[in-house]
Amino acid sequence: MSYENAVEAAEFIRSKYAQGVETVVVLGSGLGAFADDLENAVRIPYESIPHFARSTVEGHAGELVLGEIDGRPVAVQQGRFHFYEGYDMEQVTFPMRAFGQMGIKNVILTNAAGSLNTEMTPGSLMLISDHLNCMGVNPLRGKNDERSGPRFPDMTAVYDKELQDIVVAEANAMSQERFESGRDKELVDFLHRGVYCALSGPTYETPTEIRMYRLLGADAVGMSTVPEAVAARHQGMRVTGISCITNFGAGMTEEAINHQEVMETGARVAEVFKELLRKVISRIHQTG
Ligand code: HPA
After folding, report:
1. Of 53, 167, 206, 235, which residue has the fewest beta carbons closer than 10 angstroms?
2. Considering Cα of 237, then 197, then 227, then 148, what sign does the dihedral take?
3. pLDDT digit string (tens) for 220-234?
């Protein structure tokens, strides 16, 4: 997957949407509704973008939606390429390569995740402070093109401190507003902060694996995000990540985990989640 391919994809996207986009949002499972909030939206199916992976699953892989949030142009990836679907890491990270070539500076990664922390209940959100890559492969394995970034990129601060501060401040303001307006009966602290552990999937974990990941320092587990975060940092983009906690990790409750529950919890928090994203995007663009 060459540098030239990413340039070509970026040029194609720009030919469909000429406005300068500074921020991209990648939407996780069950969180796709945010893309419908964009004004003056242009939708580009992944199939039509040069060098984007072809969908291996039935239905469509997704769309890139470009449009405005409060007058600010943003790109929204509705649907992503997961490693467990059989794509290789170059295919999984290719959209991020194209976004880098488009000159996008800020990346907001979202996902559905299982909680390893009894305090962090389904329906809450977790701001990603750092990650553990337990996918068994590094997304940058292979030939490096210095035009994209260095061979050995630093990963000391993958998740940008300034963006984290913005997410926390906006979440706190939202809690306050919701309480004062009577929408919430008490002050709800819905945003946690923790370490996201990426696994290759597609199985959910065994209870013993969940205990192991907790011992390793994980607060949440999921099957995405880390490849994109690494590719974005490699290119010097600013990254922030928000997990929607959809369930407790295997063995933490009596119940089995199923995809239906994951999707339903995503839909349940959609309103809060969309509001937070909108506020964060507005703030990012104010601070430049
Ligand atoms: N494990 C892995 N990925 C997930 C989970 C989980 O419990 N919930 C949502 N995505």
Report:
1. 206
2. positive
3. 999 999 999 999 999
